[in-house]
Design a protein that fits this description.
The protein has helices at about 10-15, 20-25, 35-45, 55-60, 75-90, 105-115, 135-140, 165-180, 195-210, 230-245, 255-270, 300-315; strands at about 65-70, 95-100, 120-125, 145-150, 160-165, 185-190, 220, 250-255, 280-285, 295-300, 325, 330. The chain is α/β, with parallel strands linked by helices. It has three domains: about 10-50, 434 Repressor (Amino-terminal Domain) (Orthogonal Bundle); about 65-165 and about 305-330, Rossmann fold (3-Layer(aba) Sandwich); about 165-300 and about 330-345, Rossmann fold.
Amino acid sequence: MSKRRISIEDIAKRAGVSHSTVSRALRDNSLISPKVREEIKQLAQEMNYVPNAIAQSLLSSRTNTIGVVVTSIADPFYAEVVEGIEQVARSAGLSVVLSASHRDVEQEIAAIDRFHRRRVDGILLTDSRISKQHTQQLAQIAVPTVLINNQTKDQSEMFYSVEIDDHLGARLAVEHLVSLGHNSIGYLGVGDRSRSNQHRLEGYQMALTEANLPQISDWVAISDEDYARTNDVVIGQKMLPKLFTTGVTGIFCYNDMVAVGALLACRELSISVPQDLSLVGFDGIAVSGYVTPPLTTICQPMLKIGSDAMQMLLDLLEEKSVENRVLSPFLLKRGTSGALRNDHT
């Protein structure tokens, strides 16, 4: 009777690692450390493992699709990021399939699972809530995965990432208001514990410290509503009146949609922008240029975020070495920020 062929499963059992770890190590995938790759190859040799030609050809059969998980299909920020992803994917002959997570980690994992069953070649996760505690659940994902603006503090080492420097963006916003003479500057944030919210708040605080300006807890308004179920514009509208009564003359908003909500509240309350109050948003989405007055904002290079992440995924597919990227936002001065009026001083 012929002896049974040694399989990847057998090597995985002996090495005490997952099937996908062995598979990646034997293909010299850069997700696996050189030391582990060497150990697994050595073990495979000792066990007389012979690669199955049919299995190998299946492994190399690509579906030419990329799965992208966004927070919401309606999110104008990610609409532009996806445009950047599409441009690079299209030129590489790949098609993009979208799924929404609604800022919920379980829905995110379910979307990844669906993509995995569809045998996509790679996955891009935006605003990911996945942390180290989910590593076990995701160990079976044998496709390259890149995170865009990851939202957890303890990002899993399984994935590469492209993100924006939120600290820098917040500091640019506050420094701009300080340069206009404002010294009572508020922050209007959202009530999730995401990393971007935390970093923008920290950047705001750091900039105030550097400018020797007071930090007053009443000047920080963070919505305690369930962020996953609330519209950013509504948050801005609801939170602005209370924040304005604290005497702030300039407000840095978590994002452009929150700032648009704040602008609508100002109109309802006959608060004149920027004469009575200066506002600065964050993102640089298209609508920020169409409101009246047009919004001063911290722009994220959205197309570049998308195209860089997609290029990183292509490099991983070709098993090239890649490095995590942090991109810098920039200030776009428009009509919602102005010099502090003398009667405010």
